[in-house]
Amino acid sequence: MPMSTPNIVAGSGSRDVQPVEYRRIYVWELPVRAYHWINAITLVALCVTGYLIGAPIRAFYAAEAYQQYWFGWVRFIHFLAAFIYVFNFLARLYWGFVGNKYSHWNAFFPLKKSQRQEIVDVIKADVLETKLHGPISTGHNALAGMIYFFTFLAFVAQTITGFALYSSMSNSWLPRMFTWIVPLLGGDSGVRFWHHTFLWFFVTFVIVHVYLAFYHDYIEGRGTVSSIIGGWKFEREKSDD
Amino acid sequence: MGQSIWNSMQQKGYSRRDFLQFCAAAATVAGFGQTGVAQVVSAFEKKDKPAVVWLHFQECTCCSESFIRASHPIVLDVLLDVLNLNYTETLMAASGFQAEKCLTDTIANNKGKYIVLVEGAVPTKDDGVYCMIGGKTAESILQTVAKDAAAIVAWGSCASNGCVQAAKPNPTGATPIYKLVDKPVINVPGCPPIADVMMGVVTHLLVLGQLPALDSQGRPKEFYGRRVHDTCYRRPNYDAGLFVESFDDENARKGYCLYKMGCRGPVTYNACSVIKWNEGTSYPIQSGHGCIGCSEEGFWDNGPFYQHLASFPGFGIESTADTIGTVVGVATLAGVAAHAVVTNIRKHQVIAEVHAEDLKES
Fold this sequence. Notes:
heterodimer; B: alpha/beta; five-stranded parallel β-sheet; 15 helices; 41% helix; elongated
């Protein structure tokens, strides 16, 4: 149903101008939102505990080893979060084939000319700040989609190296599926090195992602931030999607 | 030749009891357990002593030094009596042409039956001129000897993964054995490998006449299946979060975990913390020094040894992934902040533009 938004009025103080028509669009379905927040929570947990595993803080009081399990808990949280993270990611991959068009897999690859044009537009809006309005896709914009694809690659890299490192402590088939990477990277030492290096990709990604979510909320003015909580965005009646 | 170990020991004056004790020790070292003792006894009674060729290429002989310190008392006899050690540059009495004849005779007389133990890497650059014995390159000697071998064992990190010769920039093109021969090679890495592990591998070959179960890197699973870390007696300190922060602090005296001192135990597969060294006396971590991961591929290049995280290639020896990551992270934050400031400065223009567009569309 089209919904008038009388509060958005062109020009300040000119109340006699006709209001702009906006309509609500259900963009992010529940599985997509659930994926996003589970991913966010586990990713932060993984980054924090992962950094601590690399540079541990010593136990807070010096007692006998059997009396505490501080570093053990840090590692346990890391492993637990990793398993949730991986299955959550697999669920999202599945949803990329059965979900709505905004969550569909082809949103992540700039295969169409219009998507490539939009990448240029978004760079103009985000980096150069020369084109601050105009239509941007209601779902992922084409540049964001492509960046998310790169993060998926980083997910995969972390999954492979992480499980390969974990496999020496586990007889489970899942981590053992990834032991083939160990000789390729020159032993556990090399695997750990790359697993640790990728941590910083995620730290950088989170900084940019959170900032750009706020920035797009501001320049697009249609509920970018709230959409990942409620699922709805707003679109102008006349704009062509 | 043509003589079993039991015959050989009888001639030396060992009793049946000594022989059985030796068999039990051999079975234990090779990881057969109680039920395997009979198998060992049977093999040592009946099978001919195998001919063995021990080759030395680019190495420091620390593997040989380690081997002769195997903790069982009869190890020297193993060397001299149990094996027909027909050729080894370090220990053999013969020299020159006589020595070379030992090698060619062994190969000719034991085609397909002799065991080759290789110590050292093989240089492949510049036609292999960097290691020559008797006018022949290491590689040509290896190929000749390996051709008719029953089994090939790569002793130590040099033969298994190149070790220090293969460290960057690897000027001689030092290459591990398994990359040069088209037969399965048992890699027994370590700088040096543990004496009892070497004994165990040889015993396995002798008794069962087949290769032990190997992992993806060609190492016997029975000795390289677990990390030094998993069997380390300091492991509870790791889980508790009790770490040595400096080699002269109170925590070092208390024997806390050496993880933060760069200990490579968590990424090193070896039996040091189980079998230990020098008749089970100690191993590096027990002596207060972190593991340097000497049995892992490329351990010289994964330094510095006293730093937990390897230095990041191309950014100088002090730069870890954390240093670079922190710089990148801070730069990103600064960029984002600058962007926010610029956006805020221009906000009146932005709002005016958006309103103008709304007017146009409505």
